[in-house]
From TrEMBL:
PROSITE patterns: AMP_BINDING. Keywords: Ligase, Nucleotidyltransferase, Transferase. Gene3D superfamilies: 3.30.300.30, N-terminal domain of ligase-like (3.40.50.12780). Pathway: Siderophore biosynthesis. GO terms for biological process: siderophore biosynthetic process. Residues 450-525 form the AMP-binding enzyme C-terminal domain. The lineage of its organism: Bacteria, Pseudomonadati, Pseudomonadota, Gammaproteobacteria, Oceanospirillales. Residues 33-399 form the AMP-dependent synthetase/ligase domain. Its EC number is 2.7.7.58. It holds the Pfam family AMP-binding_C. GO terms for molecular function: 2,3-dihydroxybenzoate--[aryl-carrier protein] ligase; nucleotidyltransferase activity. It comes from Aliikangiella coralliicola. NCBIfam families: DHB_AMP_lig (TIGR02275). This is (2,3-dihydroxybenzoyl)adenylate synthase.
Amino acid sequence: MRIPFSPWPESAASEYRDKGYWTGETIHSLLASRAKTTPDAIAIVCGKRRINYAEFYSLVNRLSIAFAKKRLGPKDTAVIHLTNTFEFYLAFFALLKRGVTPVLALAAHRYSELSHYLSQTNAKLLISDGDIWGKQCSEMMQRLQAEHSDLAQIVMTNSLQDMPDFVTDFNSLTSEDDSIHGDLGLPNEVAFFQLSGGSTGTPKLIPRTHDDYLYSVRESSKICQLNEQSRYLCALPVGHNFSLSSPGALGIFYAGGTVVLAKDPSPDTCFSIIEAEKINITALVPPVAMVWMKSAERNAKSLASLKLLQVGGAKFSQEAAKKVEPLLGCKLQQVFGMAEGLVNYTRIDDSSEIIENTQGRPISDDDEILVLDDNDEPVARGEIGHLLTRGPYTFRGYFQAPVTNSKSFTADGFYRTGDIVRQTADGYLIVEGRHKDQINRGGEKIAAEEIENHLIAFDGVLDVALVAMPDELMGEKSCAFLIPEDVNIPVIKLRQFLRQRGLADYKIPDRFEFVPVFPKTAVGKVSKKQLRLQIIDILKGSHKLSLQSFTDSAVSK
Ligand code: OOB
């Protein structure tokens, strides 16, 4: 299977090249230059391992040779499914160097998601972590291999004994020779696939080229004022756009700083790492930032080194934003980004007014922003509308999805983000809600239709609609409204059913409600707006939550 070499229209590509945004470098060349300029600086800390740039680059080289020996090369695809360990970066850079296009799956993904990525890309290689699967590992690998004829190789970290023949231990791959190897990945080609949070039945893949991604990495690194002294704690999933490139690990590698990996974002895990490793920057989603603030009040560990906390992935409330500096003793930066491209930051020197009340402004002067009403007409500055964008690092089409007739783009290439925003007079964006049919569970995105498709397959379910319900900590959780055929179905059976289908845990609905009919809109479609109000009413009855703000935003959607 050949991946289209560049999804960009030539007119846009030459504009971005002429403006100096696209430099014709590759993501892996960033590492090669660091190995030359700062070979002894520590690039990654993972548990007890400390890897300097020279060693890092050499390991990447050796791994890319190992991939070559496995007959993997340009235009092949691979799925990376790893936890927060340094093997993720090794695999990522080595595949890019070899010209193999990886799909960056999340560690939380399971059979259902992986299976989909494997069949969509005809991937020849899966790199996974035995710890993710536990006892099921061998059985799951056999199943995935049997169902995907292109999947010739599986490489495992933490692999258990009794693995099938086609499973290779990750460590055995890095022990190859170290002769310098040619770079096969090309700057204007698709480097890898990010995952869309999605709103449809099947998760979509976002092609990102070296040129466009590197531009966002370099600029993000500058906006966050990174340098060789930057010490970044990576506590969110390694492959997510936030922790990979906003500025994330790649921004740190570009600046010559150090990435310290945490296996999870809990204060228990992270506070001692911050103290021991003198972390000065990290990135969190809002619910985790709240837990950190609660914990910091009574935790003796010193967070004194921490200078900047980035919060993004979901809306951070104004009240919570105000507490960051007093409770954690560091500056807040709000980040509103998306795997599809556009990333907005509040700037380090912005007033607290801006930092607490907005989700930032775009990276680039050439990020074109449109805020439109339901008829695609621009709203007045400061008014609420749909956010559309086009720019030097916002993609121009999903993988294998024709752009013509696509609901996701306008005819002239603007991406419809599905977010509802307001833009201030000085260009900052405030996220007010969402138009896309998605649940944002504390930063983890759930496409309603994907879950609905699974639930409708359950015997005895006549119809289903998944909606967001308010949650004090997570912002939103998911509630599945079901019309049963005759009797209510035990919830435990529904959960079991979804797990058996191999769905990631965070996608399993937090609540199920059984109803005889769905409220309908004027045109006869299921009214999710009414269902969201219905669940708010039910919750109001069951516990005394302050739901006012959620009610307002739910109604605006
Ligand atoms: C990040 O990327 P994705 O692809 O997981 O999710 C993108 C969506 C946005 O369209 C928006 O709906 C929501 O997540 N979102 C926010 C937000 N940041 C993201 N909603 C409100 N406030 C925010 N600050 O989530 C992502 C990618 C790069 C950097 C940061 C986040």
